[in-house]
């Protein structure tokens, strides 16, 4: 379970987040929705440690953690970026095994075995030796998910998972996220697409732009 | 142009070409790593370091390499730093080419999408791991054509070492031309430069191809 309490963040004197609270229960999906400019992405960037929060508390399973920490015990969050940000110079398999071998110090063979299992589960069987430029958008997204899952995160976060893809892939993404939920994954989805949110969410958090309130 | 004459002067030309090649290889070996380090410093957030390196790049690109050679060999001894001829040449070339390479690498580093660093960060990779495994391979691919240009320039720039009395390929040709009052030696010199640069181009194309496995 992820809990965020009283999260505040401002940029250059402009308050973006003013005491946001949220909870994502184990195995559930929380969608954060709102118009662009409302601070959804900032919220996600604070939770994933890409942006330092001004103040606030982060708890995973009741235990505090530092999203910006470099300690292994702080490594609890997986991220699937809007543009996926795969490493173009590495194969699909290397994208997935890189962090487990370098950061978790997993043996290469074990990391590869785990990665191949993940790829298979995500319908990327036999794609391990391809490079990102050889994949479709949907496939890239699934590689990004596999790469995040390989680090055994407690929660998986998505930034606008439908926006970089063909509109007709939206249902595929929903199915994918719900499939991971079935496997017990806790997930947090930032989206501006209310319809999509209603399809996958157990809980929806609406954020509004502060200066429009 | 008799074959006999050509055979007679070729050994001295090859000897000169040896000096050219030696200087070429050691300059590359020194200036490429220097260029990468300086480019990282140029993009650092620590302002004094950035200014210092900008000054260095400005000095190196802002004055003729010929002048720098003269200063290193004839000027530095005034302040007590004495180099042998060859060491002085190498020192000046590495500093000069390091500055050009730094600017090329800086451009390469800046064209890497911020998302690459962010993806590495959420995977908890260290800065060093991010550079080594993700950023530098992509930068190298981007900069190969520009580096190639400089590499080819370097082969020819090495002829400037005559000014501090080193015997390179062009000087060997000059000596023979002055002695025998014929342009044949210089014709041969031109031919040898063309062959050397042909080989460089071939190798550079190979390297470029090797990096075409990703986009």
Automatic annotation (TrEMBL), chain A:
Residues in ABC transporter domain copies: 2-213
Domain of life: Bacteria
Keyword Nucleotide-binding: yes
MF terms in GO: ATP binding; ATP hydrolysis activity
SUPFAM superfamilies in UniProt: P-loop containing nucleoside triphosphate hydrolases (SSF52540)
Keyword annotations of the record: ATP-binding, Nucleotide-binding, Transport
InterPro entries referenced in this protein's UniProt entry, alphabetically: AAA+_ATPase (IPR003593), ABC_transporter-like_ATP-bd (IPR003439), ABC_transporter-like_CS (IPR017871), MetN_ABC_transporter-like (IPR050086), P-loop_NTPase (IPR027417)
Family that this chain belongs to: Belongs to the ABC transporter superfamily.
Protein name: Polar amino acid ABC transporter ATPase
Organism ancestry: Bacteria, Bacillati, Bacillota, Bacilli, Lactobacillales
From TrEMBL, chain B:
A Pfam family the protein falls into: BPD_transp_1
PROSITE patterns, per database record: ABC_TM1 (PS50928)
Subcellular compartments: Cell membrane
Main location per the UniProt record: membrane
Keywords recorded for this protein, A-Z: Amino-acid transport, Cell membrane, Membrane, Transmembrane, Transmembrane helix, Transport
Family designation: Belongs to the binding-protein-dependent transport system permease family.
GO biological process terms on file: amino acid transport
Membrane-traversing stretches: 21-43, 55-76, 88-105, 183-205
Annotated ABC transmembrane type-1 domain residues: 17-204
Membrane topology: Multi-pass membrane protein
CDD domains: TM_PBP2
Record's GO cellular component terms: ATP-binding cassette (ABC) transporter complex
Organism: Limosilactobacillus mucosae DSM 13345
Protein's name according to its UniProt entry: Amino acid ABC superfamily ATP binding cassette transporter, membrane protein
Record lineage: Bacteria, Bacillati, Bacillota, Bacilli, Lactobacillales
GO molecular function annotations of the record: transmembrane transporter activity
């Amino acid at each position: 379970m992820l809990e965020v309490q009283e999260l505040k963040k401002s940029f250059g004197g402009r308050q973006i987040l003013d005491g946001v609270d949220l909870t994502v229960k184990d195995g559930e999906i929380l969608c954060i929705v709102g118009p662009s400019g409302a601070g959804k992405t900032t919220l996600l960037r604070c939770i994933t440690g890409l942006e330092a929060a001004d103040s606030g508390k982060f708890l995973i399973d009741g235990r505090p953690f530092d999203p910006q920490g470099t300690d292994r015990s702080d490594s609890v969050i997986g991220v699937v970026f809007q543009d996926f940000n795969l490493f173009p110079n590495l194969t699909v398999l290397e994208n997935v095994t890189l962090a487990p071998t370098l950061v978790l110090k997993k043996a290469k063979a074990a990391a590869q075995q785990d990665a191949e299992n993940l790829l298979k589960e995500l319908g990327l069987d036999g794609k391990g030796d391809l490079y990102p430029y050889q994949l479709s958008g949907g496939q890239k997204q699934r590689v990004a998910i596999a790469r995040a899952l390989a680090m055994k995160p407690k929660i998986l976060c998505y930034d606008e998972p439908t926006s970089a893809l063909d509109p007709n892939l939206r249902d595929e993404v929903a199915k994918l996220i719900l499939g991971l939920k079935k496997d017990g994954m806790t997930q947090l989805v930032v989206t501006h697409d209310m319809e999509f949110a209603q399809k996958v969410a157990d809980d929806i958090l609406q954020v509004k732009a502060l200066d429009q309130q | 142009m008799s074959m006999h004459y050509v055979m007679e002067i070729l050994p001295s030309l090859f000897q000169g070409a040896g000096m050219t090649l030696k200087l070429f290889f050691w300059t590359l070996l020194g200036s490429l790593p220097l260029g990468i380090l300086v480019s990282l410093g140029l993009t650092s957030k620590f302002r004094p370091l950035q200014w210092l390196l900008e000054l260095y790049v400005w000095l190196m690109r802002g004055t003729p390499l010929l002048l720098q050679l003269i200063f290193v060999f004839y000027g530095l001894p005034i302040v007590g730093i004495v180099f042998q001829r060859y060491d002085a040449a190498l020192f000046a070339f590495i500093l000069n080419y390091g500055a050009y390479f730094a600017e090329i690498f800086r451009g390469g580093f800046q064209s890497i999408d911020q998302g690459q660093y962010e993806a590495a960060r959420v995977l908890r990779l260290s800065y060093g791991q991010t550079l080594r495994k993700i950023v530098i391979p992509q930068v190298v691919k981007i900069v190969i054509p520009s580096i190639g240009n400089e590499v080819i320039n370097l082969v020819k720039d090495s002829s400037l070492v005559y000014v501090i009395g080193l015997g390179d390929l062009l000087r060997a040709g000059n000596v023979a031309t002055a002695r025998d009052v014929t342009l044949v030696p210089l014709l041969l010199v031109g031919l040898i430069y063309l062959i050397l640069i042909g080989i460089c181009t071939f190798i550079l194309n190979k390297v470029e191809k090797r990096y075409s496995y990703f986009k």
